[in-house]
Automatic annotation (TrEMBL):
Keywords: Aminotransferase, Pyridoxal phosphate, Transferase. Residues 11-366 form the Aminotransferase class I/classII large domain. Its cofactor is pyridoxal 5'-phosphate. PANTHER family: FI04487P. Pfam families: Aminotran_1_2 (PF00155). The keyword Cell membrane does not apply. This is Aminotransferase class I/II-fold pyridoxal phosphate-dependent enzyme. The keyword Transmembrane helix does not apply. GO terms for molecular function: transaminase activity. InterPro entries: Aminotransferase_I/II_large (IPR004839), Kynurenine-oxoglutarate_AT (IPR051326), PyrdxlP-dep_Trfase (IPR015424), PyrdxlP-dep_Trfase_major (IPR015421), PyrdxlP-dep_Trfase_small (IPR015422).
Amino acid sequence: MTDLALRTGSINLGQGFPDTDGPSKVIEAARQALSHGANQYPPLNGTAPLREAIANQRQHRYQTPYNPQEQIVVTTGATEAITAAILALCEPGEEIITFDPAYDVYPAAARFAGARCRRIPLCPTLHGYEFDPQELAAAVNAKTRLVVLNTPHNPTGKIFTSAELQNIADVCIRHNLIAVTDEVYEYLTYEDYEHTPLASLPGMEERTLTVSSAGKTFSLTGWKVGWACGPTHLVSAMRSVKQYLTFASAAPLQDAVAIGLTSEEGWVAGLRRNLAANQEILSQGLRKAGFNVLPAEGGYFLQADVSPTDQPEALDFCRNLPHMGKIVAIPTQAFSAPENTKRYSSLVRFAFCKNDEVMKVAAQRIVTCFQHHR
Ligand SMILES: *Cc1c(COP(=O)(O)O)cnc(C)c1O
């Protein structure tokens, strides 16, 4: 889709990467680190300042304590953290539960581990996306090892409610499962929505690996600096895998990210406001053009239902949109397991992580293209 965007001169609302830079203080810190010799292998676990900054951030924001010596590992993006966690904790033939649609790394990492992925569908309803707790309970068996939870969720924009988190925690505790949480959008929540880590629920800290990254929080997706926090035995298993995946992650970027976590909350608050405003611009355009819009509670993406248009199938819609409207978007079913694609056949994921000028042009293009097309 990114290729198609380039070939057709479209605005790329497919892939989720921002078009404005991260905080200048953080970028300057990386530049300083490059010219002051931070250019050799850092420790496997990550540099001490970054591990300390992560521990402080987790403690202050969520009251979850982690010892930076033994309970944190810095990784090459959240992607490596998730992959290392799954490889470390799942044997061939074991099972992972996650929700559908899902970020594509989870099923891919499950395959690397020889594990099977069971995907609980999130169903679009009037109140947003919901899963059936009975389906979750029924998915657990003797081979189940892990539950992978992503909140705020890509691609739906859902934030799991406290009742849903409690339900997932109960299942993990009852069946002695480990949770791996992907919290890369932990700061990007809108309106009154707030992020609650699964690890902050009673009984979960000792069985949860919490994964996050600098990419989305600081609009530095190209840096690929991520991390995982959790109980010593789980982090130690992850470190053993990371040793042979990458050994260590980019040295000059780590202490710069530490500065971001320590002193750039204000910058991140501004990012969150801009994203909320951009979402509004895009939703208004989509609504004006006749789509049903499911607003994002968090993250980079919103969902639009294209069934009211003359191209009610999201796949056809997304194939034609670059040619008709010079916009690229992704059919939600691309993130779904084959058994669930039908549920999402009229849904399209649009990114709103571009600057407001680009979002205005995109919204205008959508209105012009579809107002007379219904
Ligand atoms: C972008 C994204 C990631 C990737 O994070 P990196 O730090 O770039 O590896 C992981 N999970 C979700 C849900 C994402 O949207």
